[in-house]
Amino acid sequence: MKITVVTSNPNKATEVAAFFGDEVEVTHVALECPEYRDDDVGEIARQKAAFAFEKVGSPVIVDDTGFYISHLNGFPGPYAAYVLDTIGLEGILNLMGGATDRTGYFETAIAYADETGITIFRGRVEGVIVSPRGSDGFGYDPIFEVNGRTFAEYPLNEKAAVSHRGRALAAFRDFITSQTHNENC
Amino acid sequence: MKITVVTSNPNKATEVAAFFGDEVEVTHVALECPEYRDDDVGEIARQKAAFAFEKVGSPVIVDDTGFYISHLNGFPGPYAAYVLDTIGLEGILNLMGGATDRTGYFETAIAYADETGITIFRGRVEGVIVSPRGSDGFGYDPIFEVNGRTFAEYPLNEKAAVSHRGRALAAFRDFITSQTHNENC
Fold first, then answer.
1. What angle do CA A158, A136, A133 make, to 5 degrees?
2. Which listed residue, A140, A179, B42, B73, has the most CB atoms within 10 A of its CB?
3. Does A152 touch chain B (CB under 8 A)?
């Protein structure tokens, strides 16, 4: 099976390719998709996938990821990338100050589009906001701790086992596996 | 002349009505327009106006406003409303800390849509970020100072003379006035 990952973020494409290994032939197209402002990453991913499928013309996946911090009323939410580009990790940690509630979660929605339509797969992971540690990963990974390690302290293959994107990809893999079985029946 | 202001924020509708007084009959429709994520408020306003004109069926104006703080690399930018709803004025002031560069600006883009197309009018105002003062206005008005007063210390009619939205509305008024003259020639 061949799938095109459409994203302007090469780190995301790398995570998808690492997840599937030899199972699926993953190619990467760096296409900027227009994004709706919406509180739901699933809706944003759906819109992007519709655009990407029209452009690429073969099965595509796109993702949209939000980062929701309890103490900040869900900020930065779906605007995680923009917030990182402007105020950065330092800004997030400033806003947290000495807050006792350090909980937050990542949510990824993967939208898979082919000629039959668009399907959404979600993955979520809960963690706590900590001072930066580790040098792997990207984005908020250094300040997001799950099971005693920040995401920047996980090797890529281990991160996939617990991460939001890994969980969404696992749901997607179940879907394409069952589809392939159906086709073979 | 009749114009429908399409916004889910009643404060914006009030500012537009106050600006025009008896000149223009302003009605307000509280319609949620889908918004693209875009760095440019003009593009966002254009998309919303296209949607609103299709729904309303008569001339409409919509606006989109961004708030850009130099010390925060332009944050919160086009996500001003979302940021206010989550981290609030307190969050912005935390992020500013003791920064010596307190400058920032508001930019409003007004998109006017009628059967001939969509036209964009922009207004911008520079100011400085201060501790909250005043009880008029809405949004970031209490922490945004222009000519020694915060926007929350300006009465509505005085605010229109200096504000981003007032300047965009003035450009729009020039346009419709010249259009009306042309029609009379």
1. 105
2. A140
3. no
Encode pLDDT of A122-167 as tens digits. 999 999 999 999 998 889 999 999 999 999 999 988 998 999 999 9
Task: Search chain A and give the residue with CA nearest B68.
Answer: A86
Residues B18, B158: Cα–Cα separation, whole Å: 10
Measured between CB atoms, does A75 come within 8 Å of chain B? yes
d(CA A91, nearest CA chain B) in Å: 6
Percent of chain B topping pLDDT 90: 68
Contacts of A86 in chain B (CB under 8 A): 72-77
* Residue A64 among the catalytic residues: yes
ipTM of the complex as predicted: 0.73
pTM: 0.81
- Option in A36, A73, A86 nearest B35 (CB): A36
Total domains present in chain B: 1
Q: Which domain holds residue A177?
A: 2-184
Q: What is the CATH number of the domain that holds A97?
A: 3.90.950.10
Residue of chain A whose Cα is closest to the Cα of B71: A87
